[in-house]
């Protein structure tokens, strides 16, 4: 599979390319713990002596981004030299430090620094262990062996104007020592970072057009070497990728800042009279560094053939080139950051969308649940009411039937008896009518007899009167008897009516109770209806809340957009990784090799962390 190349990051030709900043990659071996977890291996492949390939592991951000179409999952990086995990300390020193130490003993300043994520092997490379020395003690060893017997034992030289030194009188030495003690005491409070110094230096270099003057900082520049340490563990993949990208950018940028015309000048030792005291030249080199004369000669030729105007022009060109390069690097950095921000933003949007869906789904489910519950409750209440109605209906029917049965039992008169009784009544009524007629007739007769008797009182008349009286008496008795019977019948009928009235009252009472129960039931139904209404209102409220949630989400979205816009605005003026690197280069301009290097018990770890801090913060 063809590997995606980083445009502009790869150094085109290898052999004769001038490299003011050599960038060496050292891959440390797996630790025992890392070897045990096989899944954490295999993301770094050394393709050849200059190239490594990084394969993004599954969990890395690089892989996730590449799956979303941002960046690649496979990256190729080139270095001045790649040292694999099997490289010994001695091999690494030989392969990386030889040039720079050789140049140094010829009077050229040098800078060596390591860069890498934590636990990548920086300390091991620089300092090493007591049994397996790193590049710092090895370099010091070579340097001191080289000047063996030629040490200047007095401590009376003081750096002057970047790359010169002044010889001090005894009194001045004492003053300097006192000053040094005071400075060392307050060193812990010193917070000015190396990066600031280097940034200032780079700015001074950019802004200056007079690069030929002896005291210009560029003239004190020498060789620089960046050692990139990585471990192959997948857990540090994303940081490692960042380190590699940064080192690739740094390598190219430094090449732009320091083209060949800006080679090194050896430092001068100036006495009190301003004359040079000491000069390391080709004659001071040891046999190990046989080609050092050539190098010096080359550099001197390059400088002397250029006129002042040429140098000015070259400086202008370089300045322009540097600005263009810087802009393109900034653009690239901005692009990378923008892509990362976009990826993060997309991820945020996706997460937000997922949450929105979850909320929506939950709200719908809740609503559905409540509607179902309401319908279930409604159904169950309706069922209950219907069953109660049925029950009461049945009870009323039963009660009415029982009452009717009781009344029938009490007051039942067979039809034959009723008819016979009626006939009797009719018969009696007929008799009463007949008797009344007879009574009328007899009364008339008596009246007629009364008028006659006043004229002729006879025995016959007396007998007739007795007979009539007897008949009347008998008729009266019969009538009285009938009246008594009628009264009894009326009484019994009244009693029955009374009984019927009582039964009716009882039925009414039962009916009233049932009506009361019915009204209670209606009231219960009304309450349930109200409850149902309140539940429906609640469901509406849920919908309203959901709308509020969605509006809040929209607002959040807008704020995020605003935030990203703000962030991208803020990123523009930052100097970025480039400035830090430049500042690192400049630190050597005023610091002799060995001074303040390595992991000195107090000062070094502090300053080393200071250098790393900005990078770590960016990471
Ligand atoms: N080339 C190597 N060969 C063998 N062991 C190594 C090598 N490089 C590093 N190690 C081991 O890996 C571990 C981490 O290395 P080191 O402490 O140098 O990392 P570091 O980059 O300085 O970490 P930090 O930034 O946290 O100080 C140490 O135990 C060290 O001995």
TrEMBL record:
<dbReference type="GO" id="GO:0090307">
    <property type="term" value="P:mitotic spindle assembly"/>
</dbReference>
<feature type="coiled-coil region">
    <location>
        <begin position="371"/>
        <end position="398"/>
    </location>
</feature>
<keyword id="KW-0206">Cytoskeleton</keyword>
<dbReference type="GO" id="GO:0008574">
    <property type="term" value="F:plus-end-directed microtubule motor activity"/>
</dbReference>
<dbReference type="GO" id="GO:0051231">
    <property type="term" value="P:spindle elongation"/>
</dbReference>
<keyword id="KW-0597">Phosphoprotein</keyword>
<dbReference type="GO" id="GO:0005876">
    <property type="term" value="C:spindle microtubule"/>
</dbReference>
<feature type="binding site">
    <location>
        <begin position="116"/>
        <end position="123"/>
    </location>
    <ligand>
        <name>ATP</name>
    </ligand>
</feature>
<keyword id="KW-0067">ATP-binding</keyword>
<keyword id="KW-0547">Nucleotide-binding</keyword>
<feature type="region of interest" description="Disordered">
    <location>
        <begin position="564"/>
        <end position="619"/>
    </location>
</feature>
<dbReference type="InterPro" id="IPR027417">
    <property type="entry name" value="P-loop_NTPase"/>
</dbReference>
<feature type="compositionally biased region" description="Polar residues">
    <location>
        <begin position="581"/>
        <end position="591"/>
    </location>
</feature>
<dbReference type="InterPro" id="IPR047149">
    <property type="entry name" value="KIF11-like"/>
</dbReference>
<feature type="coiled-coil region">
    <location>
        <begin position="476"/>
        <end position="562"/>
    </location>
</feature>
<dbReference type="GO" id="GO:0008017">
    <property type="term" value="F:microtubule binding"/>
</dbReference>
<dbReference type="GO" id="GO:0007018">
    <property type="term" value="P:microtubule-based movement"/>
</dbReference>
<dbReference type="InterPro" id="IPR001752">
    <property type="entry name" value="Kinesin_motor_dom"/>
</dbReference>
<dbReference type="GO" id="GO:0005634">
    <property type="term" value="C:nucleus"/>
</dbReference>
<dbReference type="GO" id="GO:0005524">
    <property type="term" value="F:ATP binding"/>
</dbReference>
<keyword id="KW-0963">Cytoplasm</keyword>
<keyword id="KW-0175">Coiled coil</keyword>
<feature type="domain" description="Kinesin motor">
    <location>
        <begin position="20"/>
        <end position="153"/>
    </location>
</feature>
<dbReference type="InterPro" id="IPR036961">
    <property type="entry name" value="Kinesin_motor_dom_sf"/>
</dbReference>
<protein>
    <recommendedName>
        <fullName>Kinesin motor domain-containing protein</fullName>
    </recommendedName>
</protein>
<dbReference type="Pfam" id="PF00225">
    <property type="entry name" value="Kinesin"/>
</dbReference>
<dbReference type="GO" id="GO:0072686">
    <property type="term" value="C:mitotic spindle"/>
</dbReference>
<keyword id="KW-0505">Motor protein</keyword>
<comment type="similarity">
    <text>Belongs to the TRAFAC class myosin-kinesin ATPase superfamily. Kinesin family.</text>
</comment>
């Amino acid at each position: 599979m063809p590997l995606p190349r980083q445009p502009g990051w790869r150094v085109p030709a290898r052999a004769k390319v001038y490299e003011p900043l050599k960038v060496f990659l050292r891959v440390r071996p797996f630790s025992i713990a890392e070897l045990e977890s096989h899944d954490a291996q295999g993301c770094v492949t050394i393709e050849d002596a200059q190239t490594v390939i990084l394969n993004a592991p599954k969990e890395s951000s690089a892989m996730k981004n590449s799956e979303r179409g941002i960046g690649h999952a496979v990256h190729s990086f080139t270095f001045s030299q790649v040292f694999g995990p099997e490289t010994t300390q001695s091999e690494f020193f030989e392969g990386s430090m030889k040039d720079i130490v050789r140049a140094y003993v010829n009077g050229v300043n040098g800078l060596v620094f390591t860069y890498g994520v934590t636990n990548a092997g920086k300390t091991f490379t620089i300092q090493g262990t007591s049994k397996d020395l790193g590049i710092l003690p090895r370099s010091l060893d070579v340097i001191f062996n080289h000047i063996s017997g030629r040490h200047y034992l007095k401590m009376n030289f003081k750096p002057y104007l970047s790359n010169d030194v002044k010889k001090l009188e005894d009194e001045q030495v004492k003053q300097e020592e006192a000053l040094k003690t005071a400075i060392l005491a307050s060193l812990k409070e010193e917070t000015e970072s190396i990066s600031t110094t280097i940034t200032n230096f780079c700015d001074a270099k950019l802004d200056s057009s007079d690069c030929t003057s002896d005291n210009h900082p560029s003239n004190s520049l020498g060789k620089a070497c960046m050692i990139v340490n990585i471990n192959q563990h997948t857990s540090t993949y994303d940081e490692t990728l960042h380190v590699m990208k940064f080192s690739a950018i740094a390598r190219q940028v430094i090449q732009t800042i320091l083209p060949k015309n800006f080679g090194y000048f050896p430092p001068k030792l100036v006495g009190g009279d301003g004359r040079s005291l000491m000069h390391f030249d080709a004659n001071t080199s040891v046999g190990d560094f046989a080609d050092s004369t050539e190098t010096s000669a080359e550099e001197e030729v390059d400088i002397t053939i250029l006129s002042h105007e040429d140098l000015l022009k070259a400086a202008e060109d370089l300045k322009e080139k540097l600005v263009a390069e810087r802009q393109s690097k900034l653009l690239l950095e901005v692009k990378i950051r923008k892509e990362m921000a976009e990826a993060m933003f997309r991820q945020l949007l996706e997460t937000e969308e997922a949450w929105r869906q979850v909320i929506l789904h939950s709200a719908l489910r809740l609503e559905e649940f409540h509607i179902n519950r309401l319908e279930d409750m409604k159904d169950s209440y309706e069922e209950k009411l219907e069953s109660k109605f049925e029950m009461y209906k049945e009870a009323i029917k039963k009660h009415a039937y029982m009452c009717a049965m009781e009344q029938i039992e009490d007051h039942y008169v067979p039809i034959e008896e009723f008819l016979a009784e009626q006939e009797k009544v009719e018969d009696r009524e007929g008799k009463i009518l007949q008797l009344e007629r007879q009574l009328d007739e007899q009364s008339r007769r008596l009246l007629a007899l009364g008028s006659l008797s006043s004229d002729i009182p006879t025995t016959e008349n007396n007998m007739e009167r007795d007979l009539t009286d007897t008949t009347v008496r008998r008729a009266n008795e019969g009538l009285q008897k009938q009246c008594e019977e009628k009264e009894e019948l009326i009484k019994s009928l009244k009693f029955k009516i009374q009984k019927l009235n009582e039964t009716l009252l009882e039925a009414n009472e039962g009916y009233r109770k049932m009506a009361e129960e019915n009204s209670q039931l209606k009231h219960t139904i009304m309450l349930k209806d109200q409850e149902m209404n309140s539940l429906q209102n609640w469901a509406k409220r849920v919908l309203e809340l959901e709308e509020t949630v969605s509006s809040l989400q929209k607002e959040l979205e807008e704020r995020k957009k605003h935030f990203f816009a703000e962030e991208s605005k803020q990123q523009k003026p930052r100097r970025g990784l480039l400035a830090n690197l430049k500042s690192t280069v400049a630190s050597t301009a005023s610091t002799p090799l060995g001074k303040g290097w390595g992991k000195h018990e107090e000062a070094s770890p502090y300053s080393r962390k200071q250098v790393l801090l900005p990078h770590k913060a960016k990471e």
